[in-house]
Amino acid sequence: MITGSCKERIKAKMPQLTETEKKIGSFVLENYETVLQCNVSELATHSGVSDASVVRFCRSIGYRGFQDFKMNLARDILPPDRQLSPILGRGDTTEEVCRKIFLSEENVLNRTLLGLNMEDLHTLAVKIRHARKIVLFGTGGSQAVCNDVQHKFLKVGIETIAQSDIDMQLMESSLMNEQDVAICISFSGCNTNVQECIKNAKSNGAFTAGIISQGKSPLSKLVDVVFYSAYEETIFQSESVSTRIAQLAICDCLVSSVAVLDYDQAYQSILNTREATSVGKY
Known about the structure:
The protein is of the alpha/beta class. 59% of the residues lie in helices and 9% in strands. It has helices spanning 6-13, 19-30, 32-36, 40-47, 51-60, 66-77, 94-115, 118-129, 141-155, 166-174, 192-203, 218-222, 241-261, 263-278, and strands at 133-137, 160-161, 180-186, 207-212, 225-228. Helix 12 links the parallel strand 4 (207-212) and strand 5.
């Protein structure tokens, strides 16, 4: 169990750190609240170091990794009754909780819509409509979004692959070619397994796209087109329901954009799949 504040640990470890790690430590100490909103790549850019150096820095000062470091950083900055969510208070009534959450999610959706690149969305829709194969990549909560997208695409007659096992995802990515589309869904854009899948797909000529919440990230630099979902400004963004809702909203826009490219075919597919799933239910 790590004791003491994050700031105290950095100061105590400074003499033992490498010159590169000291650069990160100095930036953190001078920009405490800014770092709370950074991902690995953003902190690396601010500090003038590599992503790997940031991870090594976190371990050098006694944390398991970057997320563990940020959680402890948040404990220094945010009062305990605001760490669940900055919009909620310990004594909020059920009605206050519901109203605050609904308003927050509405704001996240509006910010996501304002940031969507419509030309890129249309380009991706056309690529999907004519693709030989569409493969979705994600882990954890993002994998749940992949499963939802697969379900919705199938309804409009577009078959996609959304493997839950990471080895299966890696194998799928290795078999893609220039006729295929690879879509990754990730909050941080830093998941190394998903990065490898996109690298495989891209090296084989597949068109690549990402639905990502945080800006500068390894995945956002890898894909051909990227769509950003807004998120709440809190240390626990990746656990936020509003983040998932924003990702799902982008995916709904994509599925519908593909469907209207061949409306009659999509409509017939909806009728066929609806009839198939209604057998024996009534």
